[in-house]
Protein backbone atom coordinates (compact mmCIF):
# COMPACT_ATOMS: atom_id res chain seq x y z
CA UNK A 1 0.00 0.00 0.00
CA UNK A 2 1.13 3.55 -0.75
CA UNK A 3 -0.24 4.80 2.56
CA UNK A 4 2.60 4.32 4.98
CA UNK A 5 1.60 0.72 5.63
CA UNK A 6 -2.00 1.83 6.23
CA UNK A 7 -5.06 1.30 4.08
CA UNK A 8 -7.42 4.25 3.77
CA UNK A 9 -11.08 3.39 4.43
CA UNK A 10 -13.86 5.56 2.99
CA UNK A 11 -16.11 7.89 5.00
CA UNK A 12 -19.71 8.63 5.89
CA UNK A 13 -22.10 7.15 3.35
CA UNK A 14 -25.49 8.42 4.45
CA UNK A 15 -23.98 11.87 5.01
CA UNK A 16 -22.87 12.01 1.39
CA UNK A 17 -26.12 10.57 0.02
CA UNK A 18 -28.03 13.32 1.83
CA UNK A 19 -25.73 15.94 0.31
CA UNK A 20 -26.85 14.68 -3.07
CA UNK A 21 -30.51 15.04 -2.15
CA UNK A 22 -31.38 11.53 -0.94
CA UNK A 23 -34.07 11.34 1.74
CA UNK A 24 -33.11 8.48 4.05
CA UNK A 25 -34.95 9.23 7.29
CA UNK A 26 -36.15 5.64 7.30
CA UNK A 27 -35.49 2.39 9.21
CA UNK A 28 -33.57 1.19 6.12
CA UNK A 29 -31.40 4.34 6.24
CA UNK A 30 -28.85 4.44 3.39
CA UNK A 31 -30.02 1.00 2.22
CA UNK A 32 -33.19 2.75 1.03
CA UNK A 33 -31.14 4.03 -1.92
CA UNK A 34 -30.61 0.45 -3.09
CA UNK A 35 -34.33 0.52 -3.88
CA UNK A 36 -34.82 4.13 -4.92
CA UNK A 37 -31.54 5.52 -6.34
CA UNK A 38 -28.72 3.02 -6.87
CA UNK A 39 -26.99 5.48 -9.22
CA UNK A 40 -26.45 7.81 -6.24
CA UNK A 41 -24.72 4.99 -4.37
CA UNK A 42 -22.28 4.50 -7.23
CA UNK A 43 -21.67 8.28 -7.34
CA UNK A 44 -20.70 8.30 -3.65
CA UNK A 45 -18.38 5.31 -4.06
CA UNK A 46 -16.65 7.11 -6.93
CA UNK A 47 -16.24 10.26 -4.84
CA UNK A 48 -14.49 8.31 -2.09
CA UNK A 49 -12.27 6.49 -4.59
CA UNK A 50 -11.27 9.82 -6.12
CA UNK A 51 -10.48 11.06 -2.58
CA UNK A 52 -8.01 8.21 -2.12
CA UNK A 53 -9.95 5.40 -0.40
CA UNK A 54 -8.23 2.01 -0.58
CA UNK A 55 -11.32 0.30 0.86
CA UNK A 56 -14.91 1.19 -0.01
CA UNK A 57 -17.68 -0.13 2.21
CA UNK A 58 -20.98 -1.22 0.64
CA UNK A 59 -24.35 0.41 1.35
CA UNK A 60 -25.66 -2.72 3.11
CA UNK A 61 -25.17 -1.62 6.74
CA UNK A 62 -28.90 -1.48 7.42
CA UNK A 63 -29.85 -3.72 4.49
CA UNK A 64 -31.35 -6.73 6.24
CA UNK A 65 -33.61 -9.39 4.82
CA UNK A 66 -36.37 -8.86 7.43
CA UNK A 67 -36.02 -5.09 6.96
CA UNK A 68 -36.62 -5.36 3.22
CA UNK A 69 -39.44 -7.88 3.72
CA UNK A 70 -41.16 -5.46 6.09
CA UNK A 71 -41.36 -3.12 3.07
CA UNK A 72 -43.30 -5.74 1.13
CA UNK A 73 -40.36 -7.19 -0.81
CA UNK A 74 -40.06 -10.94 -1.33
CA UNK A 75 -37.10 -12.87 0.07
CA UNK A 76 -35.74 -13.19 -3.48
CA UNK A 77 -36.00 -9.44 -4.05
CA UNK A 78 -34.38 -8.74 -0.67
CA UNK A 79 -31.46 -11.05 -1.42
CA UNK A 80 -31.05 -9.46 -4.85
CA UNK A 81 -30.76 -6.00 -3.26
CA UNK A 82 -28.04 -7.25 -0.91
CA UNK A 83 -26.08 -8.57 -3.87
CA UNK A 84 -26.70 -5.30 -5.68
CA UNK A 85 -24.91 -3.42 -2.89
CA UNK A 86 -21.74 -5.40 -3.64
CA UNK A 87 -22.16 -5.22 -7.42
CA UNK A 88 -22.49 -1.41 -7.39
CA UNK A 89 -19.33 -1.05 -5.30
CA UNK A 90 -17.38 -3.46 -7.50
CA UNK A 91 -18.52 -1.66 -10.66
CA UNK A 92 -17.50 1.70 -9.19
CA UNK A 93 -14.11 0.34 -8.14
CA UNK A 94 -13.45 -1.21 -11.56
CA UNK A 95 -14.57 1.92 -13.42
CA UNK A 96 -12.38 4.14 -11.27
CA UNK A 97 -9.35 1.87 -11.44
CA UNK A 98 -9.53 1.70 -15.24
CA UNK A 99 -9.41 5.51 -15.42
CA UNK A 100 -6.85 5.93 -12.59
CA UNK A 101 -4.35 3.62 -14.28
CA UNK A 102 -4.25 5.95 -17.28
CA UNK A 103 -3.25 8.96 -15.19
CA UNK A 104 0.46 9.71 -15.08
CA UNK A 105 1.84 9.74 -11.54
CA UNK A 106 -1.40 8.63 -9.90
CA UNK A 107 -1.11 7.78 -6.22
CA UNK A 108 -3.99 5.31 -6.08
CA UNK A 109 -4.20 1.65 -5.12
CA UNK A 110 -6.75 -0.71 -6.64
CA UNK A 111 -9.39 -0.49 -3.93
CA UNK A 112 -10.96 -3.40 -2.09
CA UNK A 113 -14.72 -3.73 -1.58
CA UNK A 114 -15.86 -4.47 1.97
CA UNK A 115 -19.43 -5.76 2.38
CA UNK A 116 -20.99 -3.99 5.36
CA UNK A 117 -22.86 -6.08 7.93
CA UNK A 118 -24.53 -3.86 10.50
CA UNK A 119 -25.31 -5.01 14.01
CA UNK A 120 -28.64 -6.42 15.16
CA UNK A 121 -29.22 -3.05 16.86
CA UNK A 122 -28.87 -1.28 13.51
CA UNK A 123 -31.71 -3.42 12.14
CA UNK A 124 -33.87 -2.61 15.17
CA UNK A 125 -33.24 1.10 14.41
CA UNK A 126 -33.88 1.95 18.07
CA UNK A 127 -30.40 3.13 19.01
CA UNK A 128 -29.47 -0.18 20.68
CA UNK A 129 -26.26 -0.43 18.65
CA UNK A 130 -25.12 2.38 20.97
CA UNK A 131 -26.39 0.75 24.18
CA UNK A 132 -25.75 -2.95 23.60
CA UNK A 133 -29.00 -3.68 25.41
CA UNK A 134 -30.79 -6.28 23.30
CA UNK A 135 -32.90 -7.60 26.17
CA UNK A 136 -33.07 -11.04 27.79
CA UNK A 137 -34.70 -12.79 24.81
CA UNK A 138 -31.74 -12.27 22.44
CA UNK A 139 -29.44 -15.27 22.68
CA UNK A 140 -26.23 -16.23 20.91
CA UNK A 141 -28.18 -18.52 18.57
CA UNK A 142 -30.77 -15.84 17.80
CA UNK A 143 -28.01 -13.46 16.75
CA UNK A 144 -26.38 -16.12 14.57
CA UNK A 145 -29.74 -16.85 12.94
CA UNK A 146 -30.27 -13.13 12.33
CA UNK A 147 -26.92 -12.71 10.57
CA UNK A 148 -26.59 -16.09 8.86
CA UNK A 149 -28.53 -15.70 5.59
CA UNK A 150 -27.38 -12.12 5.02
CA UNK A 151 -23.79 -13.26 5.50
CA UNK A 152 -24.29 -16.12 3.02
CA UNK A 153 -25.82 -13.82 0.39
CA UNK A 154 -23.10 -11.19 0.73
CA UNK A 155 -20.37 -13.82 0.52
CA UNK A 156 -21.98 -15.19 -2.67
CA UNK A 157 -21.83 -11.68 -4.15
CA UNK A 158 -18.03 -11.80 -4.05
CA UNK A 159 -16.71 -8.85 -2.02
CA UNK A 160 -13.01 -8.66 -1.13
CA UNK A 161 -13.71 -8.17 2.60
CA UNK A 162 -16.51 -8.43 5.16
CA UNK A 163 -17.05 -5.59 7.64
CA UNK A 164 -19.14 -6.24 10.77
CA UNK A 165 -19.90 -2.74 12.06
CA UNK A 166 -21.00 -0.99 15.29
CA UNK A 167 -21.09 -4.23 17.30
CA UNK A 168 -22.16 -3.14 20.80
CA UNK A 169 -21.57 -6.18 23.01
CA UNK A 170 -19.57 -9.36 23.53
CA UNK A 171 -22.48 -11.66 22.64
CA UNK A 172 -22.85 -10.30 19.12
CA UNK A 173 -19.08 -10.26 18.59
CA UNK A 174 -19.03 -13.92 19.55
CA UNK A 175 -21.98 -14.67 17.25
CA UNK A 176 -20.24 -13.03 14.27
CA UNK A 177 -16.91 -14.75 14.89
CA UNK A 178 -18.48 -18.19 15.42
CA UNK A 179 -20.73 -17.73 12.38
CA UNK A 180 -17.70 -17.14 10.14
CA UNK A 181 -16.25 -20.42 11.40
CA UNK A 182 -19.53 -22.33 11.07
CA UNK A 183 -20.06 -21.11 7.50
CA UNK A 184 -16.43 -21.71 6.53
CA UNK A 185 -16.09 -18.17 5.19
CA UNK A 186 -12.73 -17.62 3.51
CA UNK A 187 -13.16 -13.88 2.77
CA UNK A 188 -11.09 -11.78 5.22
CA UNK A 189 -13.26 -10.05 7.83
CA UNK A 190 -13.09 -7.32 10.40
CA UNK A 191 -15.30 -6.74 13.43
CA UNK A 192 -15.69 -3.16 14.67
CA UNK A 193 -17.27 -2.04 17.91
CA UNK A 194 -18.88 1.24 18.80
CA UNK A 195 -18.08 2.99 22.09
CA UNK A 196 -19.92 5.75 23.86
CA UNK A 197 -17.48 6.42 26.70
CA UNK A 198 -14.08 5.63 25.19
CA UNK A 199 -13.49 2.93 27.79
CA UNK A 200 -15.77 -0.02 27.10
CA UNK A 201 -18.22 -1.45 24.60
CA UNK A 202 -21.66 0.22 24.75
CA UNK A 203 -22.92 -2.73 26.81
CA UNK A 204 -20.43 -1.84 29.56
CA UNK A 205 -18.36 -4.96 28.90
CA UNK A 206 -14.62 -4.45 28.69
CA UNK A 207 -12.94 -4.63 25.31
CA UNK A 208 -10.64 -7.25 26.79
CA UNK A 209 -13.69 -9.52 27.22
CA UNK A 210 -14.96 -8.73 23.73
CA UNK A 211 -11.61 -9.29 22.05
CA UNK A 212 -11.03 -12.57 23.86
CA UNK A 213 -13.96 -14.16 22.00
CA UNK A 214 -12.76 -12.78 18.65
CA UNK A 215 -9.14 -13.83 19.18
CA UNK A 216 -10.27 -17.46 19.01
CA UNK A 217 -11.26 -17.06 15.34
CA UNK A 218 -8.62 -17.17 12.62
CA UNK A 219 -11.23 -15.91 10.13
CA UNK A 220 -11.35 -12.44 11.69
CA UNK A 221 -8.31 -10.57 10.40
CA UNK A 222 -8.88 -7.19 12.00
CA UNK A 223 -10.76 -5.60 14.89
CA UNK A 224 -11.46 -2.02 15.76
CA UNK A 225 -13.76 0.91 16.34
CA UNK A 226 -16.23 2.67 14.07
CA UNK A 227 -18.81 5.41 14.60
CA UNK A 228 -17.28 6.50 17.91
CA UNK A 229 -16.07 10.04 18.64
CA UNK A 230 -12.57 10.58 17.23
CA UNK A 231 -11.11 11.82 20.51
CA UNK A 232 -11.60 8.28 21.92
CA UNK A 233 -9.67 6.58 19.16
CA UNK A 234 -6.02 6.92 20.22
CA UNK A 235 -6.52 5.43 23.68
CA UNK A 236 -8.74 2.68 22.24
CA UNK A 237 -6.07 1.67 19.72
CA UNK A 238 -3.58 1.44 22.59
CA UNK A 239 -6.05 -0.64 24.60
CA UNK A 240 -6.80 -2.99 21.70
CA UNK A 241 -3.08 -3.51 21.07
CA UNK A 242 -2.79 -4.90 24.61
CA UNK A 243 -5.43 -7.57 24.00
CA UNK A 244 -5.08 -8.71 20.39
CA UNK A 245 -2.49 -9.40 17.71
CA UNK A 246 -5.02 -8.76 14.95
CA UNK A 247 -4.79 -5.70 12.70
CA UNK A 248 -6.54 -2.59 14.02
CA UNK A 249 -9.12 -0.69 11.96
CA UNK A 250 -10.54 2.69 13.03
CA UNK A 251 -13.06 4.88 11.28
CA UNK A 252 -14.63 7.27 13.79
CA UNK A 253 -17.43 9.71 13.16
CA UNK A 254 -16.92 13.48 13.19
CA UNK A 255 -17.56 13.77 16.92
CA UNK A 256 -21.22 14.75 16.67
CA UNK A 257 -23.53 12.55 18.72
CA UNK A 258 -26.41 10.60 17.18
CA UNK A 259 -29.63 10.60 19.20
CA UNK A 260 -31.05 7.19 18.27
CA UNK A 261 -34.44 8.02 19.77
CA UNK A 262 -34.95 11.49 18.26
CA UNK A 263 -33.15 10.37 15.06
CA UNK A 264 -30.98 13.47 14.80
CA UNK A 265 -27.37 14.60 15.28
CA UNK A 266 -26.55 16.61 18.39
CA UNK A 267 -23.75 19.20 18.34
CA UNK A 268 -20.67 18.10 20.26
CA UNK A 269 -16.87 18.19 20.26
CA UNK A 270 -16.20 17.95 16.54
CA UNK A 271 -13.15 17.10 14.42
CA UNK A 272 -12.73 19.03 11.21
CA UNK A 273 -10.70 17.64 8.31
CA UNK A 274 -7.51 19.37 9.51
CA UNK A 275 -7.80 17.62 12.86
CA UNK A 276 -8.35 14.27 11.14
CA UNK A 277 -5.14 14.93 9.22
CA UNK A 278 -3.19 15.53 12.45
CA UNK A 279 -4.66 12.60 14.34
CA UNK A 280 -4.35 10.14 11.45
CA UNK A 281 -0.57 10.06 11.92
CA UNK A 282 -0.99 9.47 15.66
CA UNK A 283 -3.45 6.65 15.06
CA UNK A 284 -1.11 5.08 12.51
CA UNK A 285 1.87 5.41 14.87
CA UNK A 286 -0.17 3.83 17.70
CA UNK A 287 -0.77 0.74 15.55
CA UNK A 288 -3.83 1.27 13.33
CA UNK A 289 -3.55 -0.48 9.94
CA UNK A 290 -6.80 0.77 8.39
CA UNK A 291 -8.01 4.36 8.94
CA UNK A 292 -11.10 6.15 7.64
CA UNK A 293 -14.21 8.01 8.70
CA UNK A 294 -17.79 7.17 9.58
CA UNK A 295 -20.91 9.30 10.05
CA UNK A 296 -20.68 13.01 9.20
CA UNK A 297 -17.28 12.62 7.56
CA UNK A 298 -16.92 13.24 3.84
CA UNK A 299 -14.65 12.72 0.82
CA UNK A 300 -12.76 15.81 2.05
CA UNK A 301 -12.02 13.97 5.31
CA UNK A 302 -10.82 10.91 3.42
CA UNK A 303 -8.69 13.10 1.14
CA UNK A 304 -7.04 14.58 4.24
CA UNK A 305 -6.37 11.11 5.68
CA UNK A 306 -5.06 9.80 2.37
CA UNK A 307 -2.91 12.85 1.76
CA UNK A 308 -1.01 12.62 5.02
CA UNK A 309 -0.49 8.83 4.89
CA UNK A 310 0.46 8.63 1.22
CA UNK A 311 2.69 11.72 1.42
CA UNK A 312 4.72 10.13 4.21
CA UNK A 313 5.08 6.95 2.18
CA UNK A 314 6.10 8.59 -1.10
Shape: globular
Q: Summarize the main sheet.
A: 8 strands, parallel
Average of the residue pLDDT scores = 91
Order of helices and strands: EHHHEHHEHHEHEHEHEEEHEH
Strand content: 5-15%
Helix fraction? 40-55%
Question: Helical region count?
Answer: 12
Identify low-pLDDT runs: none
How many strands?
A: 10
Which strand order do you get reading across the main beta sheet? 1-10-7-6-5-4-3-2
Write down the Rg: 18 Å
Structural class: alpha/beta
| Termini gap | 11 Å
GO molecular function, one term: zinc ion binding
Protein name: Hcy-binding domain-containing protein
Domain Hcy-binding: 1-309
Cofactor: Zn(2+)
Overview of the structural elements:
One of its GO terms (molecular function) is zinc ion binding. Keywords: Metal-binding, Methyltransferase, Transferase, Zinc. The protein has twelve helices and ten strands. The chain has 314 residues and is of the alpha/beta class. It has an eight-stranded parallel β-sheet. Strands 8-9 form a two-stranded antiparallel sheet. A hairpin with a 4-residue loop joins β8 and β9. α10 runs parallel beside α11. The longest helix is centred in the N-terminal third of the chain and has 26 residues. The N and C termini lie close together (11 Å). The model has no long low-confidence stretch (mean pLDDT 91).
Amino acid sequence: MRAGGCAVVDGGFATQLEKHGASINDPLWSALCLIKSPDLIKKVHLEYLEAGADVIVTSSYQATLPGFQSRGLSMEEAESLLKTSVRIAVEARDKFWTSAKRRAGNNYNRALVAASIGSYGAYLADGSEYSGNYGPDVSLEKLKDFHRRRLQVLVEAGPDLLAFETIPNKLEAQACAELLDEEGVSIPSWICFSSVNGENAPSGESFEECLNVINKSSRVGAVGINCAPPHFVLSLIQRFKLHTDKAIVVYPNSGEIWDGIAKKWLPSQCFDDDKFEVFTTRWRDAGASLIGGCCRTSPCTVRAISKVLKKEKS
